Model the fold of this input.
Amino acid sequence: MRPQAFIFDVFGTVVDWRSGVARDVSRALPQVEPFAFAAAWRARYQPAMERVRAGGRPYVALDELHAEMLDETLAAFGARMTPPARAALATAWERLPAWPDAPDGLARLRTMAMIAPCSNGSIALMTRLARYAGLPWDCVLGADVARAYKPQPEVYLAAAAALRLAPGAVMMVAAHNDDLRAARAAGLMAGFIPRPQEHGPGQTADLSPDGPWDLVADDIADLAARVSLGVGR
Done:
């Protein structure tokens, strides 16, 4: 069955967070190695969300967590910033470049079904990022809608419910096998796209699908072509 909607992981799957964050870091903090700083900032992502998932703190938008993680990363690197410069750098996640195949691939896919992000990013963050990167979403779904963070099942189920679709009519697309496992457990279809440069040279994780996903494609353009032809792998 062709999905009636495709929902996407964004950071890493649709946009290149590593180079985008490193670019802003290099401008704001020329004294640090920008890719190392970007990786260290991103490494705090899951632990920060886990406190929310585990009930250790109420739900807060990822924008706030990014700012807190930035403060921790600055301290780890022994770097200091003025408050205005720090506030500007905290929004680097709104200015990430799309992978080259993403805008046109999404536009083609949108002629066949609804498309939306299902991200841990807030509605505000995802909207600004879509405008920056040229991502033609129909709407914005994800953490702010569910007030929870992936891979909690309510995030995927809330996205389907917001579209008034059964979970089985929606495909989650991601470059991360763990995201797809959680979506599949919640009853959604799953589509895998590898992003072997997400973490830079030497990446070892998520280079290939490790589950019986419904669709495996080279990139988003290939995904759209496969959907058009009805080809899963």
The longest strand covers residues 114-119.
